[in-house]
Design a protein that fits this description.
Elements: E1 4-8, E2 13-14, E3 17-18, H1 20-31, E4 37-40, H2 52-65, E5 69-73, H3 79-91, E6 96-100, H4 109-120, E7 127-131, H5 133-136, H6 142-149, E8 154-159, H7 164-173, E9 179-182, H8 188-193, E10 198-201, H9 208-219, H10 223-239, H11 247-255, H12 272-285
Parallel strand pairs: 1-4, 1-10, 4-5, 5-6, 6-7, 7-8, 8-9, 9-10
Antiparallel strand pairs: 2-3
Helix pairs in contact: 1-2, 3-4, 4-6, 6-7, 9-10, 10-12, 11-12
Amino acid sequence: MIKGSIVALSTPFSDSGIDFSTMERLIHLHNGSGTSGILLLGTTGESPTINEDERKEIIKFTKERIKCSLIVGTGTNSTEKTIKLTKQAEDLGVDYALIITPYYNKPTQSGLKRHFEKVATSVHIPIIIYNVPSRTGINIMPDTVSYLSVLDNIVGIKEASGKLRQMIEIVSTTGKDFSLLSGDDMLTLPIISIGGKGVISVTANIVPEDVGKMVDYALNNKWDEARMLNEKLYYLSSAMFIETNPIPVKTALKMLGYNMGELRSPLSEMASENRTRLKEALVNYGLLSRGH
């Protein structure tokens, strides 16, 4: 079962492509911080702007150095392209594929069933569904998730709909080996309290040990300790979303001394007032000194 604190890794860029020196630093950070999985090529990793050669290089590089589970985002709004990318991930030895609900073309629930069924039956790699209606324009419903969870290699869902009632239905209508994972750092604790198994986290890029501890406390019913850490993490997590993800988290990593390079167009640098708010959040958490 996929569970725990999984980081949605930010991708460091250089003028010529990927900054693999910085990527190695990031992987090393997570190898020693209680992170249970690394997600590559998700939204936080700026996947829409990464070309096919870069995808392969990033996956191979990480696979050789990782000490935890490796998850790769392979979903698109084309079923055939999604199958192609998922097969590629499988061939490269990835542990799980994260597949987003098709965006822009807004399939019906019937279309979603056909899409995920076709992908799942075309590969053997375990698949995690990704539901984020605010980005895709479509919400995968609990009945559809329950239907798909019967397939052997559909093993979980990253839920970022913000709808706890929907998530309760998913937990109650899927098997005990199916993982509900939070896709929203600020809702991780309540999601675990209703039966979730962890988080695919943006904030874990910055404080992997604390996110990992909070998730572990909650999964082991140490609720007082989990709540204390959740309160500490909440305002830092909020700051990670004061502009479109991954703009704040990449900016924060640069503030903390990582050579992340520039955001790729069409993303742009943070507004100065938001940079000030982000820096204040890092200072208040104890990650930066006020005069830094």
